[in-house]
């Protein structure tokens, strides 16, 4: 009997129908539970893909040092994949990330280098580029690496199509590095060009982990605007409120970007009927407990 390894169980996550949060108009709301991946987020897919494909091309070999800028979930996933495959992982991230995220990365053996909240992800990316230029490690660069969206083209998209028996009409995803929405869009549009792809970005002034509004100079090069039919701005308060709704009304403990995805799904549901609307629940909420976002309301 051949037993699976850890990398064999990345993906094939559940797609569940919401029961108490009603979409109305005979619409169906489906949540893709990416927190069920081994390291707890949708980023397990591209993390494993980027390392495995670079390894297959001979660009990296076990024992090498890999460097990546991250806001959290990609870093945790890369730390897991690096531990599994025998790489030293250096992660550069803003120091306002939740303590659970930092501890998870460290638990996998990654080295963490902080930048300030003010420097943000742009500063983390700049420092990663500087370190790579100095020869301190090799890049994966989730923002420009085609193996990022390819992971979703090969896995997430086909899963959604299969799990809905081809009935999916709308796909909704938060946009950070944009790998998820790019890969899924490409696959679903190949199956049915009428499937609507909706991306989410934060309103001006909102700070939602996992959702970004990038300055033009830092826009991920993997992003192709033509693959997104519509972009919806999500506010900080509505993302947090819908995150709590997922937990309290559906029993799905997830992060703030997943609350934003639910809010986006409900906005779409107000405009359509007889639709099958699937959204990505990017990660698990237990890595945000220290932030107080789930604390009882006073």
UniProtKB/TrEMBL annotation:
<keyword id="KW-0663">Pyridoxal phosphate</keyword>
<dbReference type="GO" id="GO:0006535">
    <property type="term" value="P:cysteine biosynthetic process from serine"/>
</dbReference>
<dbReference type="InterPro" id="IPR005856">
    <property type="entry name" value="Cys_synth"/>
</dbReference>
<dbReference type="InterPro" id="IPR001216">
    <property type="entry name" value="P-phosphate_BS"/>
</dbReference>
<keyword id="KW-0198">Cysteine biosynthesis</keyword>
<keyword id="KW-0028">Amino-acid biosynthesis</keyword>
<feature type="modified residue" description="N6-(pyridoxal phosphate)lysine">
    <location>
        <position position="43"/>
    </location>
</feature>
<dbReference type="InterPro" id="IPR001926">
    <property type="entry name" value="TrpB-like_PALP"/>
</dbReference>
<feature type="binding site">
    <location>
        <position position="73"/>
    </location>
    <ligand>
        <name>pyridoxal 5'-phosphate</name>
    </ligand>
</feature>
<feature type="binding site">
    <location>
        <begin position="176"/>
        <end position="180"/>
    </location>
    <ligand>
        <name>pyridoxal 5'-phosphate</name>
    </ligand>
</feature>
<keyword id="KW-0808">Transferase</keyword>
<feature type="domain" description="Tryptophan synthase beta chain-like PALP">
    <location>
        <begin position="7"/>
        <end position="283"/>
    </location>
</feature>
<dbReference type="InterPro" id="IPR005858">
    <property type="entry name" value="CysM"/>
</dbReference>
<comment type="pathway">
    <text>Amino-acid biosynthesis; L-cysteine biosynthesis; L-cysteine from L-serine: step 2/2.</text>
</comment>
<feature type="binding site">
    <location>
        <position position="257"/>
    </location>
    <ligand>
        <name>pyridoxal 5'-phosphate</name>
    </ligand>
</feature>
<dbReference type="GO" id="GO:0004124">
    <property type="term" value="F:cysteine synthase activity"/>
</dbReference>
<dbReference type="Pfam" id="PF00291">
    <property type="entry name" value="PALP"/>
</dbReference>
<dbReference type="InterPro" id="IPR050214">
    <property type="entry name" value="Cys_Synth/Cystath_Beta-Synth"/>
</dbReference>
<dbReference type="InterPro" id="IPR036052">
    <property type="entry name" value="TrpB-like_PALP_sf"/>
</dbReference>
<comment type="similarity">
    <text>Belongs to the cysteine synthase/cystathionine beta-synthase family.</text>
</comment>
<protein>
    <recommendedName>
        <fullName>Cysteine synthase</fullName>
        <ecNumber>2.5.1.47</ecNumber>
    </recommendedName>
</protein>
């Amino acid at each position: 009997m051949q037993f699976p390894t850890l990398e064999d169980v990345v993906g094939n996550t559940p797609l569940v129908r919401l029961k108490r949060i009603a979409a109305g108009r005979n619409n169906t709301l489906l949540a893709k539970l990416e927190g069920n991946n081994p390291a707890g987020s949708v980023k397990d897919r591209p993390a494993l893909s980027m390392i495995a494909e670079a390894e297959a091309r001979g660009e990296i070999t076990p024992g090498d040092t890999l460097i990546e800028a991250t806001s959290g979930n990609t870093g945790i996933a890369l730390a897991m994949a690096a531990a599994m495959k025998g790489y030293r992982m250096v992660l550069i991230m803003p120091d306002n990330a939740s303590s659970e995220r930092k501890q998870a990365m460290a638990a996998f053996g990654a080295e963490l280098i902080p930048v300030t909240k003010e420097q943000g992800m742009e500063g983390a990316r700049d420092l990663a580029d500087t370190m790579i230029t100095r020869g301190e490690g090799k890049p994966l660069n989730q923002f420009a690496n085609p193996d990022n969206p390819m992971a979703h083209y090969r896995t997430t998209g086909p899963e959604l199509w299969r799990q809905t028996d081809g009935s999916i009409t709308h796909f909704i995803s938060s946009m950070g590095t944009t790998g998820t929405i790019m890969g899924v869009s490409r696959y679903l549009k190949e199956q049915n060009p009428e499937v609507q792809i909706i991306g989410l970005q934060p309103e001006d002034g909102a700070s939602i982990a996992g959702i970004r509004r990038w300055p033009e100079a830092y826009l991920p090069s993997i992003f192709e605007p033509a693959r997104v039919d519509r972009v919806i701005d999500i506010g900080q308060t509505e993302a947090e409120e819908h995150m709590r709704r997922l937990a309290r009304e559906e029993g799905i403990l997830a992060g703030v970007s997943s609350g934003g995805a639910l809010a986006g799904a409900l906005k779409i549901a107000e405009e359509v009927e007889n639709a099958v609307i699937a959204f990505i629940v990017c990660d698990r909420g237990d890595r945000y407990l220290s932030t107080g976002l789930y604390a009882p309301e006073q």
